[in-house]
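Input record, target 12 of the design panel.
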């Protein structure tokens, strides 16, 4: 995932939040699990940084025939 700081000052810290959806065999969205990780800071003004994240969901939340999809990602700079 690539984070771009388009502001005029460095981003010194922040949080990225992932919304991972548990999808049933018929396409029904059964639950949404959120998890947060720190942003790859600092990111200088006008620059960008890339970071790879692993999103985990407990196996009991995903019964046989269901799948997981991380559909929403949001970031908050501090």
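The sequence produced for target 12 reads:
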């Amino acid at each position: 995932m690539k984070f771009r700081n388009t502001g005029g000052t460095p981003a010194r810290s922040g949080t990225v939040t992932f919304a991972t959806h548990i999808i049933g065999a018929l396409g029904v969205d059964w639950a949404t699990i959120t998890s947060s990780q720190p942003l790859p800071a600092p990111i200088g003004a006008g620059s960008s940084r890339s970071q790879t994240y692993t999103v985990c969901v407990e196996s009991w939340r995903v019964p046989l025939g269901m799948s997981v999809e991380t559909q929403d990602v949001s970031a908050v700079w501090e």
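The CA atoms of residues 12 and 30 lie 36 Å apart.
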